[in-house]
Amino acid sequence: MAEKITLSKKDRLDVCFRNQYTQGSWNYERMQNGGFCFAMIPAIKKLYTTKEDQSAALKRHLEFYNTHPYLTAPVLGVVLALEEDRANGAKIDDTAIQGVKVGMMGPLAGVGDPAFWFTVRPILGALGASLAMGGSIMGPILFFVAWNVIRWAFLWYTQEFGYKVGSNIAKDISGGLLGKVTEGASILGMFIIGALVERWVSISFTPVVSRITQAAGAYIDWAKLPAGSDGIKEALTQYNSIGATALDQVKVTTLQQNLDQLIPGLAAMGLTLLCCKLLKKKVSPIAIILGLFAFGIIGRLLNFM
Question: Domain span at residue 134?
Answer without folding.
Answer: 9-195
